[in-house]
Amino acid sequence: MKPIIEVIGAVIERDKHILCALRSPTMSLGLNWEFPGWKLKDHESPKEAWLREIKELKCDMKVNTMVESTTKESDSNIICLSTYRAKIVSGTPRL
């Protein structure tokens, strides 16, 4: 049985702009644009993952509604991606 990887994605808005990142050319799917996203840790809820990752971005955000939930199967695993809309309320995201 293939492992199931649960991931949350973030459509983060600020002043009519959307935050996205260009993947490194050395990564899988290199040079593709993507929204920020995080794997859920064992027994972690999407809300708990959001709170954990927002702290790392060093800004305040308000998480809104779910945009979409999709599942994609590859040769090695199954990825369940739930994407949420969020808005930066203060600060600037930093890695």
TrEMBL record:
One function term, GO molecular function aspect: 8-oxo-dGDP phosphatase activity
Presence of keyword Protein biosynthesis: no
One Gene Ontology term from the biological process aspect of the record: DNA repair
Required co-factors: Mg(2+)
Keyword Hydrolase: yes
Alphabetized InterPro entries for the sequence: MutT-like (IPR047127), NUDIX_hydrolase-like_dom_sf (IPR015797)
UniProt entry keywords in alphabetical sequence: Hydrolase, Magnesium, Metal-binding
Family statement drawn from the similarity comment of this UniProt entry: Belongs to the Nudix hydrolase family.
Protein name listed in UniProt: 8-oxo-dGTP diphosphatase
Species in which this protein is naturally found: Halobacillus dabanensis
